[in-house]
Design a protein that fits this description.
380 residues, globular, five-stranded mixed β-barrel, OB fold (Dihydrolipoamide Acetyltransferase, E2P), 15 strands
Length: 380
């Protein structure tokens, strides 16, 4: 059997070492109400050190074969920096378990089955004391009238339910086609952020809006670009000097795209938005791969100057609401727009013809505008 390392030997973005561990916790973290629950394992090695293992959401087969309090030899994982939100142990790394990771069952080892740092003592401070004084209330108490304390009786009216179904279907079809795509339509259908925020989020799914706003802030901690595997489309991770996929055993090419989380604002309010690759390429006029590879802005949490210069700039933003509360920018236009003067182009063309007439009888090197004026004086 291969020699096993320790949790303390692991470093972010470095090649992994085989670990002999005991699984002592399984738990899920949900970052927001719209996100899926993320499965984690808490692993303890022979030295008594613990580390979090983030399990891919696709690995139901692996989870069904990994049992609590059993010992395993873990290989093929990826080492990332620790979680910024929801971290449960004080470690400098997080283990990422993908398709190429393997849990090999091994014989029982002298590894503890408890880890008391699962809940840091600092998080318990203030919880073991009474949080408030007991208050004695007298008289008649009544709950505030809210949706939780109210009952709505829906009477069965003949034909009512069928009518509602038809209206819902009509609304769904209208929502999926609602919006405008051409540049002229975008400029002629502007609204304000305050008006958008006043709408019910449940009624604007798949709706498009446009407004004149400024980029107020760009969140560097959310990473401004993504590196994905061309095969499984999962995020690539750095391992030493190379990028690896947690799922694919064979080295794969990577796709580098913009994914910029920002806040835009006008004089009526502000809201978060996401610039994906097409929209941000339109704004910066430079490919994301060129910034990351050629110009070496390869730290996803450090903004390049091309992005910081956008802060404070006023643009026309055209965006759409999808399944999340944060809209994605579809198109970005300059606020000031001037069409080409077609009439002036025609006049210039006529002057050039006149200059050709006069140039044959007079000085051939005379500019077109002067030749035109000389021709007019001769005629008068």
């Amino acid at each position: 059997m291969m020699a096993a390392g320790k949790v303390t030997d692991l470093l972010p973005y470095e090649p992994p070492v085989p670990l002999k561990v005991r699984v002592i916790r399984k738990y899920c973290i949900q970052w927001s109400p719209t996100d899926k629950s993320q499965l984690f394992y808490l692993l303890v090695d022979e030295s008594g050190n613990a580390v979090e293992a983030k399990i891919s959401t696709r690995l139901k087969k692996i989870d069904s074969k990994v049992f609590l309090y059993k010992c395993y030899l873990l290989t093929g994982y990826v080492v990332d920096p620790p979680q910024k939100i929801g971290k449960v142990v004080d470690q400098t790394v997080t283990i990422i378990v993908g398709d190429r990771a393997e849990f090999h069952a091994i014989d029982e080892l002298p590894i503890q089955k408890q880890f008391y740092s699962f809940a840091p003592y600092s998080s318990l401070e203030g919880r073991y004391h009474p949080t408030a004084k007991t208050v004695l209330l007298t008289g008649t108490l009544q709950l505030e009238s809210t949706s939780a304390t109210s009952i709505v009786i829906d009477l069965a009216i003949e034909g009512y339910s069928e009518e509602i179904k038809s209206l819902k279907a009509l609304t769904a079809r209208a929502s999926s086609h609602y919006g405008y795509q051409t540049e002229d339509d975008i400029r002629n259908n502007l609204t304000t952020i305050g008006d958008i925020l006043s709408k019910n989020p449940d009624t604007i799914n798949n709706h498009r809006f446009s407004c004149i706003a400024k980029v107020k802030e760009i969140f560097a901690n959310r990473k401004w670009f993504s590196r994905k595997c061309t095969v499984c489309l999962d995020n690539m991770r750095r391992e030493g000097v190379r990028m690896v996929c947690k799922n694919c055993t064979v080295a794969q090419e990577e796709v580098i795209n913009y994914c910029v989380n920002a806040t835009i604002c006008d004089n009526t309010g502000s809201m978060p938005v996401v610039f994906f690759n097409e929209a941000m390429t339109q704004v910066l006029r430079v490919d994301c791969r060129k910034l990351v590879i050629d110009e070496e802005y390869n730290d996803p949490v450090v903004l390049p100057p091309q992005l910081t210069e956008l802060i404070g700039q006023e643009k026309i933003f055209h965006f759409i609401f999808k399944s999340t509360e944060t809209p994605s920018i579809q198109q970005t236009l300059d606020v000031h727009f001037t069409a080409e003067p077609e009439k002036e182009t025609e006049i210039l063309h006529e002057e050039v013809e006149v200059s050709d007439i006069t140039s044959s009888s007079t000085a051939p090197k005379t500019p077109a505008s002067k030749a035109t004026r000389r021709y007019d004086r001769q005629q008068s």
